[in-house]
Automatic annotation (TrEMBL):
<protein>
    <submittedName>
        <fullName>Proteasome assembly chaperone family protein</fullName>
    </submittedName>
</protein>
<feature type="region of interest" description="Disordered">
    <location>
        <begin position="224"/>
        <end position="244"/>
    </location>
</feature>
<dbReference type="InterPro" id="IPR038389">
    <property type="entry name" value="PSMG2_sf"/>
</dbReference>
<dbReference type="InterPro" id="IPR019151">
    <property type="entry name" value="Proteasome_assmbl_chaperone_2"/>
</dbReference>
<dbReference type="Pfam" id="PF09754">
    <property type="entry name" value="PAC2"/>
</dbReference>
<keyword id="KW-0647">Proteasome</keyword>
<dbReference type="GO" id="GO:0000502">
    <property type="term" value="C:proteasome complex"/>
</dbReference>
Length: 244
């Protein structure tokens, strides 16, 4: 049965979920991994939705196996994180997004979708925000701006935003200037400090994302290459010149 299965006891009050599917610059993936590690978040549930690769994940120095797409939580902070170790194919995205967004809606979860925008960036990557439903109000206290020009979000994250918009689910999508072919810890740091911290009212240590940038890039390079080579499977934002 296709479902999101929660297998740990925790109590949340309209939590915020940070989505971390792999995409351009691995912005979502790096952000999600960092939040789970820094906040020592508990593995609460798993996604067994149609459209996800049927593979098992294991870690070094552990005999435990786990599904590739998982949900971690911190009930003290009313925070959830969707962590994924695999890309999701757009050809299978509709089944996955229907399953996940249906669960978000049923549990009154406010989603924060993440996407990289492959374009030239300054010393500090730009972070833009868009919203679904009545999510715009949540962006008011952040340091993000509307996109400078029109565009679209493709891949599985784009499908999630589309499904949330269709259901009139309150949520936001954060779009960060990023590398396209290589992991971009700096873009993930900008997303955390400029948007996620004020959205969730938390403080996260992010210096290590810069200090360990080369280590993070090396550790994530294979996944980034997989996402880049399967361009049709990649979540990314794309600016459309002259878009009205």
């Amino acid at each position: 049965m296709a479902e999101v299965e929660i297998h740990a006891d925790a109590t949340f009050d309209e939590p915020t979920l940070i989505e971390g599917l792999p995409g351009a610059g691995l912005v979502g993936k790096i952000t999600a991994d960092h939040l789970v590690e820094e906040l020592d978040m508990e593995w609460l549930g798993s996604c067994y939705c149609d459209g996800l690769p049927q593979v098992s994940v294991y870690r070094g120095e552990s005999m435990e196996t786990m599904p590739p797409v998982r949900i971690y939580g911190d009930d003290d902070r009313d925070l959830l994180v969707l962590q994924s170790d695999v890309p999701v194919s757009p050809s299978q995205a509709s089944a996955f997004t229907g399953c996940l967004v249906g669960w978000l809606e049923s549990e009154s979860v406010f989603p924060v979708f993440l996407s990289g925008l492959p374009e030239e960036k300054g010393e500090v990557p730009g972070v833009y925000g868009i919203a679904t439903g009545d999510g715009t109000d949540r962006l008011a206290d952040t340091d993000v701006t509307p996109p400078e020009q029109g565009g679209l979000i493709s891949g599985p994250t784009g499908a999630l935003v589309h499904a949330a918009n269709k259901r009139d689910l309150d949520g936001v999508a954060l779009i960060a200037q990023s590398e396209v072919q290589f992991p971009d810890p700096e873009a993930a740091r900008a997303v955390i400090t400029r948007a996620i911290e004020p959205l969730v009212d938390i403080e996260i240590e992010t210096e290590t994302l810069v200090e360990r940038a080369e280590e993070i890039r090396a550790a994530r390079e294979r996944l980034a290459q997989q996402v880049h080579e399967g361009d049709d499977e990649s979540t990314k934002a794309t600016a459309i010149r002259g878009f009205q």
